[in-house]
Specification:
mainly alpha, 5 helices, 76% helix
């Protein structure tokens, strides 16, 4: 006879059911994967830094240059950026598989800061 272990079958542990995953608290998830805390903090700091440049600089520059069409052009730009992200995600996934997750994360981090860095380097005007 096989003895049943809690949370598993005689052959070994089974994956958590989707209902169990939904009921798991954030503390339980972090206890299972403590490295996730570092990733969450790094992502939050990165997004905060990117949003400061975007909110304070790029949005104002768009309004100055695009004037009455700013909402339309911003929506079109967002749409095309999302389409580009969907089309390039398999390529970026392969890049991450070949070069490693850390290299891919550094590449992504540098690329997300480029708009804010462009404002720092070229200044806050239409021609740069």
């Amino acid at each position: 006879l096989h003895s049943r272990r809690p949370g598993g079958s005689p052959s070994g542990p089974q994956p958590m059911a989707s209902q169990d995953v939904r009921r798991a608290s954030m503390r339980e998830v972090i206890n299972r994967n403590p490295e996730m805390v570092k990733a969450m903090l790094a992502s939050g700091i990165q997004r905060a830094a990117v949003m400061v440049g975007s909110t304070l600089g790029v949005q104002s520059l768009r309004a100055l240059e695009w004037k009455d069409s700013a909402a339309e052009y911003t929506a079109l730009l967002g749409m095309w950026m999302n389409i580009l992200a969907m089309l390039s995600s398999p390529l970026f996934g392969r890049f991450g598989d070949r070069c490693g997750r850390r290299v891919a994360a550094v590449f992504y981090g540098v690329a997300t800061f480029l708009p804010a860095w462009a404002l720092v380097v070229f200044g806050f005007n239409a021609t740069g």
